[in-house]
Specification:
By secondary structure, the chain is an alpha/beta fold. It folds into two domains: 5-143 and 342-476, FAD/NAD(P)-binding domain, CATH 3.50.50; 152-208 and 253-337, FAD/NAD(P)-binding domain, CATH 3.50.50. The protein is 31% helix and 17% strand. The protein is built from 15 helices and 20 strands. It has helices at residues 15-26, 44-47, 79-93, 183-194, 219-226, 231-245, 247-251, 254-271, 275-280, 298-303, 360-363, 397-414, 423-437, 441-444, 467-476, and strands at residues 5-11, 32-35, 99-100, 103-111, 114-121, 126-136, 159-161, 175-179, 198-202, 209-210, 293-294, 307-310, 314-318, 321-324, 329-331, 334-337, 352-353, 382-384, 452-453, 458-459. The strands form five sheets. Strands 1, 2, 3, 4, 5, 6, 17 and 18 form an eight-stranded mixed sheet that branches. α4 links the parallel β8 (175-179) and β9. α1 packs parallel to α12 (397-414). The longest helix has 18 residues, at 254-271. It starts with a strand and ends in a 22-residue tail after the last helix.
Length: 498
């Protein structure tokens, strides 16, 4: 095989890309490369370095199965620590020689029996690479979503998205406009208050916030985790079970959701004394409809004299003035956008062209779809990690990425050559998800969330089941999802959620 043709090319070196690289290497696959646009591995945890950024999944569950980390500093690891962890995994696995950093895929086109890739290096060089198999491990939280607000570019001071944090800006005693009250804002606001900022907090809708109850691990605990006597393994298993048990409350079980919602309400009551402010911070949608957040510090920060809550979306910007949807105007010095990411419309989809000259964006024009949340009809030998219905609202998505990596590795070994996904298999998988989601709060909870594609109203981000469900479904896949392979025991219409 020529030097410019590689059996497997992985785009992205975050958790998913690293998980797959490990699977391939350990299963004897000796020829693959990882293309990464950043200057290091880490994905989300490289790009997000705003004050307070941390994992909201317990650290010991937010780690690769074959790389448990006994030395996490706390129950919810800070972002920089997760970034260091991923770099250490790459070093320990010897994956560095397979990495091409500061290289961006600008085009991918299917050509009879391979993918033709166009790559752009940071130094301006353009190169071509042929891949027998292409894996998109680009992540779902990579491209910041800026609000369509008139006058945003006219803002007189510095402004940036949380995922593009500018550490050069001194926020001490600055008037900061913080737009959004989602996961990033909940972590950031207490840090702004600690830094001495005066904050205008723009809230489109209140979130359900549960007690975080995090703490640092003591040196003694970390020594026990490292001792190799099963403590770390049992801790991880306990956290996994606890996470799976949360599925009931997030997916709409009335008893579980009611109990969880009452915990959140009591958390709010205990931390915010002012009745009017408490009312403004009370969600008006079903528990689980949006991402449930964890924080012990957000409510006290909002209730402090350093923060003014604006219960309205940002509707316009006029130089240093922020104009709310209710018509009110307020001045600020720095504008920070905690407005999320392009999740349901993945930017890479425009770059990937499959059979019949159809782009992945066209195929996903009414929402992302894939068989096994991983392979797509019309796009031979393409795998998507962290794509359609591969996220979770109740547990660690790292576990989902590892399940997908296992499916990719098995497929490559068992079914070499050109594999075309049967459209009927992808359609059946998509219908099944729609049926499983129909009565959930994600669709009927009275909120607008990033799990649902607004073009079709379909649930396209979340997996509507547990990790165990996903594991069993992917393990059962026997190749009958592909055109040229004989049908076997796997039925794509089997019950998704038992």
């Amino acid at each position: 095989m020529s030097a410019d043709r590689v059996p497997v090319v992985i785009i992205g070196a975050g958790f998913a890309g690293i998980a797959l690289a490990m699977q391939l290497q350990r299963s004897g696959w000796d020829s693959f490369v990882i293309i990464e646009r950043g200057d290091s591995v880490g994905g989300t945890w490289r790009d997000n370095h705003y004050p307070g950024v941390a994992c909201d999944v317990p650290s010991h569950l937010y780690a690769l199965r074959d790389h448990p980390n006994p030395d996490w500093s706390s129950m919810f690891a800070p972002g920089a620590e997760i970034h260091r962890y991923l770099r250490a995994v790459v070093d320990e696995e010897g994956l560095g020689e397979r990495l091409r950093l500061q290289t961006t895929m600008s085009a991918a086109r299917w050509c009879t029996d391979h993918w033709q890739l166009t790559l752009n290096s940071a130094d301006g060089r353009v190169s071509e690479l042929r891949a027998d198999n292409l894996v998109l491990a680009c992540g779902r939280l990579t491209e910041p979503r800026l609000p369509e607000v008139p006058g945003l570019d006219s803002f007189a001071g510095p402004w940036f998205h949380t995922a593009r944090w500018d550490h050069r800006i001194d926020l001490t005693d600055a008037r900061v406009g913080l737009v959004g009250t989602g996961a990033s804002a909940v972590q950031l606001l207490p840090e702004l208050v600690r830094a001495g900022s005066r904050v205008l907090l723009y809230q489109r809708s209140a979130a359900w916030i549960m007690p975080r109850q995090g703490r640092d691990y003591s040196p003694t605990e970390r020594r026990r985790f490292a001792a190799g006597n099963g403590v770390l393994e049992r801790t991880r298993e306990r956290l996994l079970v606890e996470g799976e048990e949360r599925f009931a409350s997030r997916s709409g079980d009335p008893v579980a959701a009611g109990a969880a919602a009452e915990v959140a309400r009591e958390h709010l009551r205990s931390q915010v004394a002012d009745a009017e402010l408490r009312a403004a911070l009370t969600p008006d949608h079903a528990f689980g409809c949006k991402r449930v957040l964890l924080s012990d510090e957000f409510y006290p920060a909002v209730a402090s004299d350093r923060v003014e809550l604006v219960s309205s979306a940002l509707a316009g910007v006029d130089r240093s003035s922020l104009i709310a949807a209710d018509g009110s105007r307020r001045d600020c010095d720095v504008l920070v956008l905690a407005t999320g990411f392009w999740t349901t419309r993945q930017p890479y989809a425009e770059l990937v062209v499959g059979e019949q000259e159809r782009s992945l964006a066209d195929h996903w024009a009414s929402g992302m779809t894939a068989f096994a949340s991983t392979v797509v009809s019309g796009f031979p030998n393409l795998f998507v990690l962290n794509g359609p219905n591969a996220s979770l609202g109740h547990n660690s998505s790292v576990l989902m990425a590892e399940e997908q990596a296992g499916y990719v590795s098995r497929t490559l070994h068992r079914f070499p050559g050109v594999r075309r996904v049967r459209p009927s298999a992808e359609d059946a998988w998509t219908r099944e998800i729609a049926i499983a989601a129909v009565d959930t709060p994600w669709l009927r909870g009275g909120c607008r969330n990033w799990y649902v594609d607004e073009r079709s109203g379909r649930l396209t981000l979340l997996w509507p089941g547990t990790i165990d469900d996903f594991h069993r479904r992917l393990q059962a896949a026997d190749g009958s999802e592909f055109d040229q392979l004989p049908r076997g025991r796997f039925s794509p219409t089997a019950s998704m959620v038992p």
